[in-house]
Amino acid sequence: MPSLLNQAALATEAFVKAMPKTQRKQYGQFFTSKETAKFMAELFCLPKNKSELEILDAGAGSGILSIALIERLLQEGHISRIHLTCYETDPHILPILQCNLDSLISETRTPVSYEIKTENYITSQEDSYNDKLGTAPESKQYDMIIGNPPYMKISKNAPEAKAMSDVCHGAPNLYFLFATMGIMNLREDSEMVYIIPRSWTSGAYFKEFRKKLLSQCVISHIHLFGSRNKVFDGEQVLQETMILKVLKTSRKKETVTVTTSASNKDFAALTTFHAAYDQIVKGAESYVYLITDKEEEYAIRRLSRWEQTLKKLGLQMKTGLTVDFREKELLRQTPGHDTIPLFFPHHIKQGKVVFPIGKGNEYLSAQKKALIQRNSNYLFIKRFTAKEEPRRLQCGIYLARKYSEHAYISTQNKINFIGGLRDLSECVVYGLYVLFNSSIYDTYYRILNGSTQVNSTEMNNLPVPDLNTIEAMGKKLISRKSMAESVCNEIIENYIYE
Ligand SMILES: C[S@@+](CC[C@H](N)C(=O)[O-])C[C@H]1O[C@@H](n2cnc3c(N)ncnc32)[C@H](O)[C@@H]1O
After folding, report:
1. 113, 123, 430, 445: which is deepest, by most CB within 10 A?
2. 434 in ligand 1 pocket by Cβ < 6 Å?
3. With a 6 A CB cut-off, is 182 part of the ligand 1 pocket?
4. Nearest C-alpha to atom 11 of ligand 1 is from which residue?
């Protein structure tokens, strides 16, 4: 039997070699390894009182996930009949899918039947999905759904986005439309196992998806890959990927199992953590916190006790105002009569802002109102860091008095700045630095957002203490005369100690 999975994996490999990447990109194709497929299949709890099963694999590719799941089910023994439905729109891969499924059927004694639907999984179900009056045909329901949906950003006017407008905000991606449609197709008390990017767990674009998913299902298992880019062999996947198992139910759940493996090949050396459900799913934004161990759980639990956010304190973080490559005619290397300083990430050095450094265009001709900001105190935070860098949150304290000859300044859009500090003491800026330069906030942010980008939405919603506490932390930092992470950790520990 295992040879079937190998056969499917080999056929997929041959397809990947033969098809140009640009062609595969059109279909959002990244293929699952046989080890990952097997692992995903094993995540299902078998429906106890059912011997006949309806399975769905939407975006089936060469059918590797279906094969892994059916192989597993047949080994269990008590299943007497299986019907598999695969959706697949790429005509180039359809013969491989059909051949793999035919081999599966010919090699099993248990009756297995399949159908391949070549229509679009999303738009073909548009009527059922949007049926408020109950007049459209009822959507088909399945006992098990397994999937690796296409990863593809689509325009908000794409037919798929229009078909599911209730979950689309900003830039939609096919992967979460597939997952949402999956929930519709999932029978009550049944499970869906999907491998998807982890971007949906935070961020404003995915909020409606999260709300829908979490109102109709509970998360029962999350699997994370320790190492980026190793999930899809030989393919550069920029997004970090996760495996998600949900159960369609209105019953509450106490815990979520979170497993982590080093790669997509070696599932033997797993680490397993059972996290409290209310630590994983939290807050008005319905963020999903990917907690993998006790230390991370500690960070979430401790910081969640603080009830303020930057937003509530009126200290919103914003993205820098100047997109320098679009404003080339306004950039200057040296100061002039109409210029203001333009701050870049490379001006942030060991917690301070160092300017000028005599590199590149450090000044901006102040001709556009939208590009200038008051010379006030700010905390600058780099927007992008390289994935191998030890910290995601890298801050620099900007003090207005150091540049008192300027009424206005500008910031390049690769830095973020926390403003609203104008009428507050300098100690508050130092206090914000203590928070965001501490290890616990860096851990918290990483759990929340797996990308290397620091986003305003998440930052503005992080729990923070009240202004007096922030100010007191700042005072302590000033007295220590060191901006080191370890010093910030020592200071913050006194406030978050249980
Ligand atoms: C990420 S690949 C995964 C393939 C396979 N399930 C696997 O795990 O290796 C997604 C598949 O969905 C197909 N696809 C893309 N858009 C689709 C749509 N709207 N309806 C059905 N299938 C689609 C692609 O052709 C592609 O084969």
Report:
1. 430
2. no
3. no
4. 59
C-beta of 458 in contact with ligand 1 (< 6 A): no
Tell whether ligand 1 has an atom less than 6 A from the beta carbon of residue 30. Answer: yes
> Which CATH architecture group holds 2-292?
3-Layer(aba) Sandwich (3.40)
SS3 assignment, position 118: coil
Report which secondary-structure segment, H or E, holds 296. helix 294-304
Backbone angles phi, psi at 115, to 5 degrees: -135, 145
Q: Is 442 in the pocket of ligand 1 (CB under 6 A)?
A: no
The DSSP code for 341 is: E
The segment(s) of the chain belonging to CATH 3.90.220 are 317-496
Taking the domain 317-496, which CATH number applies? 3.90.220
Ligand 1 and 87: CB distance under 6 A? yes
Q: What is the C-alpha to C-alpha distance for residues 154 and 439, in angstroms, rounded to an integer? A: 36
Q: pLDDT band for position 449 (50/70/90)?
A: confident
Asked if residue 434 lies in contact with residue 492, where contact means CB atoms within 8 angstroms, the answer is: yes
Domain with CATH 3.40.50.150 in the chain: 2-292
Rounded to an integer, what distance in angstroms lies between the CA atom of residue 418 and that of residue 441? 16
The pLDDT mean for the chain works out to: 91
**How many residues can be counted in the chain?**
498
Which strand (E) or helix (H) includes residue 281? strand 281-282
Residue 308 has pLDDT above 60, yes or no: yes
**pTM summary value:** 0.87
Would you place residue 230 in the very low, low, confident or very high pLDDT band (cuts 50, 70, 90)?
very low
User: Which of 29, 154, 160 best tests ligand 1's pocket when mutated (most atoms within 8 Å of CB)?
Assistant: 29
Spatial contact of 407 and 441, defined as CB atoms under 8 Å apart? no
